[in-house]
Amino acid sequence: MKNIVVVGGGAAGMMAAIQSAGGGHKVVLIEKNEKLGKKLFITGKGRCNLTNACDVSALFHNIVSNPKFLYSAFYSFSNTDTVDFFHSLGLKTKIERGERVFPLSDKSSDVIRLLEKECMRLGVTIYRNTKVKEIKKKENRVTGVSLQDGAFFPADRVILATGGLSYPSTGSTGDGYKMAEKLGHTVTRLRPGLTGMTVKEESAAKMQGLTLKNTAVSITEEDNPKKKYYEGFGELLLTHYGVSGPLILSASSLIGDRLEKKPLRLHIDVKPALQREQLDKRLIRDFETRKNTTLKNALTHLLPKSMIPVMLDYCGLPPEEKIHQVTKEERGRLLEGMKDFSLTLTGLRGMDEAIITRGGIRVSEVEPATMESKLVKGLYFAGEILDLDALTGGFNLQIAWSTGYAAGNQK
Hints:
- By secondary structure, this protein is of the alpha+beta class.
- It contains 14 helices and 21 strands.
- It is 32% helix and 25% strand.
- A hairpin with a 2-residue loop joins strand 8 and strand 9.
């Protein structure tokens, strides 16, 4: 039996504690918040997108940073294992669009409650409202952790699972990075991931609150639309600052570094199901039946209400113009606007709004099969503290479960 201290009571930390205690070790779990799983509580809009039901090999295609590092972790504790694990705790699950796995109850609180219950069943000692000051070592091996109040917990192993910097209100304030750096580890550049993007034009703000479903987008060089950096299909949200929604969140992690250097162009196809020729026929048909109405009223069956004035302005068309006065050239401008409504992306929203942190403990300094530090014996890492991140769809939580399992499942 070994003494194990897990620092951080989030998804990765609780999984690591459960695996360690299940292996017969004496486990102490230290959380600085008043309750466990504070960030887990808000994931998936409070519904907790546990993982993704795709093929295991497909997991890697959704990892943005260092996918090869996760090979051993994902195959040791896969997305199927995650679902089986939660089923064994009594959680019923369901699969939704995009193979996303959710609790049947749609309540993240159920996930947290079951993890906490399992920790207690296995004898994990949980300290809440408790802050770790530093990790102690002697002759390159951890000896334990000292708390802010001066107390010391001796440990054969310390598992650092303190999360990143995103959503600091949940306790992700970068404490773990400082502890790791003090022990000689490198922290790669930290930046927001899975976050909204700001745009230059005021048109987005005029449509704030509008969700465009089943929309196709691409992101290109500002002055060269043929040079594409991202393409996607799904849901997009217009906001007071610019754009958000699942499509944009995923895009932010893929093109964020490039966007830091210069503006990019977002192209939105509002009618991706219709080819240009088909859309033109649809416009002609709609216009034929509404010859005496104005342009702004004729488009109510084709565009969301809040988008109509913005689209007409974008195409340079007078909203009060009667349909029978609309020329072929004007109809063509409207068609192009609907197939390619573009905005200038100017930057990412900050860390306080980002779902995840990009960057973290350099993975070349960590053993991929065990998550043990290559620099300090007995020091392990799990979850968002590592330089690992993925697209939306349950993949970031799968990283937490798999790395937490690897770090905790040691003899």
